[in-house]
UniProtKB/TrEMBL annotation:
<feature type="domain" description="UBA">
    <location>
        <begin position="38"/>
        <end position="79"/>
    </location>
</feature>
<dbReference type="InterPro" id="IPR015940">
    <property type="entry name" value="UBA"/>
</dbReference>
<dbReference type="InterPro" id="IPR002833">
    <property type="entry name" value="PTH2"/>
</dbReference>
<dbReference type="GO" id="GO:0004045">
    <property type="term" value="F:peptidyl-tRNA hydrolase activity"/>
</dbReference>
<feature type="compositionally biased region" description="Basic and acidic residues">
    <location>
        <begin position="1"/>
        <end position="12"/>
    </location>
</feature>
<dbReference type="InterPro" id="IPR009060">
    <property type="entry name" value="UBA-like_sf"/>
</dbReference>
<comment type="similarity">
    <text>Belongs to the PTH2 family.</text>
</comment>
<dbReference type="InterPro" id="IPR023476">
    <property type="entry name" value="Pep_tRNA_hydro_II_dom_sf"/>
</dbReference>
<dbReference type="GO" id="GO:0005829">
    <property type="term" value="C:cytosol"/>
</dbReference>
<dbReference type="Pfam" id="PF01981">
    <property type="entry name" value="PTH2"/>
</dbReference>
<feature type="region of interest" description="Disordered">
    <location>
        <begin position="1"/>
        <end position="34"/>
    </location>
</feature>
<protein>
    <recommendedName>
        <fullName>peptidyl-tRNA hydrolase</fullName>
        <ecNumber>3.1.1.29</ecNumber>
    </recommendedName>
</protein>
<dbReference type="Pfam" id="PF22562">
    <property type="entry name" value="UBA_7"/>
</dbReference>
<keyword id="KW-0378">Hydrolase</keyword>
């Protein structure tokens, strides 16, 4: 198995609840309700470890009331088009604070915390194009869902909760084919549902190339395998 930095031995379930990156979970730009006392430093560090700038991470925590790393990361990714996202936090002055969104997006535990998520780790050494990556992640999502749907007694309750909380999906950067196989071995040992995508080789990559691994589980479970990986933004 590949060697990874020593800090991967930390208890990630305590510091990383997952990364979104590309997170398919729409959130409003402004929806804070409670008094803000500054960023949760533990959450802030976890977000920065995911490749999010400090300023953007602070804004995400501000707008989601320091609820979870997941919620803040999702907010950042949903608002990457904001022109001042990476500017210093002291200059961040949302003019449309919460009120228009509170009825549609109540700031409660259900809105902010998804108990389960799908995480996809992309093999970046293949240098796939954006469209190719999207197709491969789609294959992984369908394959993983089919595996779980075929065992309803074991997974139905998990899939139902996942769907109820927005069907959160996250895409991360993997280093290589060997790295994805290492993640697969860890997933097997942890009994985490997973699915490997081997491409047919019709475009861009050779036949049988390992392009993506999909994982499903709780934030803490999946975080122990992928919590230190960067969000897939541009490669």
């Amino acid at each position: 198995m590949a060697d990874y930095p020593s800090d991967t031995k930390k208890d990630l379930s305590q510091i990383v609840r997952g990364s979104s990156e590309a997170v398919e979970h729409s959130q409003p730009r402004f929806r804070r309700k409670s008094k803000y006392a500054g960023p949760n430093e533990e959450f802030l560090k976890a977000l920065m470890n995911l490749g999010i700038s400090r300023n953007a991470a602070e804004k995400g925590l501000y707008m989601t009331d320091n609820s979870t790393v997941d919620a803040a990361a999702s907010w950042v990714l949903d608002n990457q088009d904001m022109p001042n996202l990476d500017e210093p936090f002291k200059d961040f002055t949302p003019a449309l604070e919460a009120l228009p969104f509170e009825k549609e997006y109540p700031l409660d535990e259900k809105t902010l915390s998804s108990p389960y998520k799908m995480v996809f780790v992309v093999n970046t050494e293949l240098n796939m194009g954006v469209g190719k990556i999207a197709a491969q992640v789609g294959h992984a999502a369908i394959g993983l869902y089919k595996i779980m749907a075929s065992q309803p007694q074991k997974y139905d309750h998990m899939l139902s909760q996942w769907d109820d909380f927005g069907a959160t999906k996250i895409v991360l950067q993997g280093e290589s084919t060997a790295h994805l196989f290492d993640i697969e071995e860890l997933a097997k040992k942890a009994h985490i549902p997973h699915y490997l995508v081997h491409d047919a080789g019709k475009t861009q990559v050779s036949s049988g190339a390992l392009t993506v691994i999909g994982l499903f589980g709780s934030s803490s479970e999946v975080g122990t395998l992928t919590g230190l990986l960067l969000l897939l933004q541009s490669i």
